[in-house]
Amino acid sequence: MLVDYHTHPLGHRGGRYTEELLEQYLAAAQEQRIEEVGLSDHDTYCQDIDFQLVAAVARRFPALKVKNGMEFDFRPDREQKIASISGRLPFDYLIGSVHEIGDWMFDHPDYQAVYSQWDINKLYRTYFSLVEDLARSGLFDIVGHFDLIKVFGYRPTGPVLPLAVPALQAIKKAGLTVEVNTRGGYKPCAEIYPAAELLQKCYELDIPVTLGSDAHEAEETGRDLAAARQLLYRIGYRRLSTFSRRQRIMQPL
Ligand code: ZN
Ligand code: FE
Ligand code: FE
Ligand code: ZN
Known about the structure:
With 253 residues, this protein is α/β, with parallel strands linked by helices. 33% of the residues lie in helices and 19% in strands. It has a single domain, classed as TIM Barrel (Alpha-Beta Barrel).
């Protein structure tokens, strides 16, 4: 089956959910033959999510299951804040993502110059140690774009796998799901997150997976997920994580 568990109806614009906006995302999901779509706006907009409107618009799409998620910006100093937001809202699942190292937003094009100040191998180790902290926090269900640090194409001098293994082991231990996020194909790194060799390692470690387009515009919903599903199948996966009220439900891939 196809699911899209990573979508941003509010993008980076913010504002409020409207019927039109939600309809655009759900219609796009249906067109891409998605069976379950999860709305997962950035947690800066947590005050603006209208769960009742989501449920009302979802009723017009009886063939589509609509889930309530959120993408949280993980930093070790935000753990309490994240717990307080997620505790008071009716989420089906939470995505935890590392977007910052200290106060550097390393995935933002405006701050790309900072990469040249780092030893890139050390940068990867620092990034993946934050992903390890994310896993250990116990706050989330899904790890967002696992190897986002590659976004602008800065690569370690040797294989990435040994740098990533401690984070994957922490993910395994915490029982987290890794998403295959197809947005990376449209960034300078020009490949999905995580890279196929890391997904292979996820399979060996028996880490469950799900699918997400990370759409920031309605027409990006479901983008490339059929191909991502095929890749998972070739690696050996036969099941996919879905979520309902923070419970994981495994379904046929
Ligand atoms: Zn975003
Ligand atoms: Fe993100
Ligand atoms: Fe996202
Ligand atoms: Zn994202």
